[in-house]
Prior knowledge:
Blueprint: H1 5-45, E1 46-50, E2 53-56, E3 66-68, H2 69-84, H3 90-102, E4 104-107, E5 113-118, E6 121-124, E7 130-133, H4 138-154, H5 159-176, E8 178-179, E9 184-185, E10 200-202, H6 208-218, H7 222-239, E11 249-253, E12 256-259, H8 280-284, H9 290-304, H10 326-338, H11 345-350, H12 364-377
Antiparallel strand pairs: 1-2, 3-6, 4-5, 6-7, 8-9, 10-11, 11-12
Helix pairs in contact: 1-12, 2-3, 2-4, 2-12, 4-5, 4-6, 6-7, 7-9, 10-12
Amino acid sequence: MKRPVYIWLLTLVVAVIYIATLAFVRIKNPEHIQYEAYRRWQETYLVRKNNKQTYVNTSNDQKHPVALSEGQGYGLQVVSRAAEKGWASENDFDKLLNYYLAHRDYVGKHHDQLTYLMSWRQSYNKEGQWVDDHNSATDGDLYIAAALHRAAKVWPQKAPYYHKLEQQIATDIMKYEYNPTTHMLTVGDWVTKDSKFYYLLRTSDVMPTVFDHLYDCTHDSRWQMIKNNMLDRLTALSKQHRTGLVPDFAWARPGSTKPVGPNTVAGKYDGDYSANACRVPMMLAKSNDPRAQKVLNKMMRFFSEQYYITAGYSLNGHRLVKYQSNSFSAPIFYAVSCNRNEGYDNLFASQKHIFSKPLTEKNYYDATLTTLAALEGMN
Length: 379
C-alpha cells in the first residue's frame, strides 16, 4: 500500500529538522563549553573589592583570598576575550584594570618610587589588613600589557587610554625588569645586577607575540632584541634533549644556557618541565617566528607519543608524577588548536578531556588556563 504524499513530505520535514538540529548542536556545543567555562570561572574566582575594583582570587580559598599580578593579567585576558563574544563588558574589564592600577609596585631604597609594574601579591595580614608585598613578577606585567593590547581592539573608542597604559608598562619593564647585558628580561624588578638571579630565565616569560605587540606599541627596538635573544635561549634549551622539553627556570649567562638545579628558585622541580614551563606551548602557539614553531613542534611530537600526559616531566621525558592536570593539558590543547595543520589531531582529541567535567572550583591555575584554552582554542 502506497503512503500518501503528505506522509512522505512529513517524513522529509522531520528528517530535515533532525539533521538541522544535530548540526545546530554540533556548531553550538563549543560555544556552550566556552560560555560555561567563563561563567564558572567568573563566579568562582572573581572577587569584588569595592564598587570600582575586582581581583582574581588565586588562593583556592574564598576565606583567605590572595591576588597575584599573574592572576590579574590572566583575568584581564579572560574578560577581554569573553567580551568579544558578548559575555563581558568594558566595565568588567575596567574593574580588573582599576585593581591593578591601585596595586602598582614601588621601587627604590625606601620603596617610594611608584611604577606601572604590579605588586606581585596582595593578601590579608595578621591584623586583617589587605596589604601588598613588595616587588614585581615579569610574567604578570607582560600578561597585563597583552590584555591592554587586546582591549584596545575590543573597545576601539578607548584604545588611546589602553595603549597609553601599555606603553607605560613597557617603559617600566625596560627600566626595572631588563638585563642590558644579555638583552633579556629578568624575572622581576627585585632582580638587580648584584643579584645572584640576574641571569635567571623563566622559560614561560618567552612570549614572542607579546614582544611583537610591545614593539608595535612603543617602537623601541630593544623589544626585538629581547624577542630574538630569549627565543635563541629557548631554542638552545630545546636542543639539549630529544624530547624538546624545557625547564621551569634556566641560567642564561653570556655564552651559556642550562637548566637550574633543584630548589634553586621555587622547589625541587625548578629544572624540570613543571608548573611554569607547562605554559610555554601557550606562549609560543601564535608566533610565526620559525624558532618558536620549531621549539613548539618538537615538544608536541613528544607529547603526541605519550599514552596520556601527566603533570610534569624530567627533561629526558620521565614522568615526575602519575596524575594528570589541566594546567599541563590546557596549554597543549591551546597550542594544537592554533596549529591544526601540523598533524597533531591525536593531541587535539586526547586533550579535550579538560572539558569533560565542569570547571574546577578548587584550583585557580587549572581553571584559568582551561578557560583561556576554551575561549581561544575552541573556535
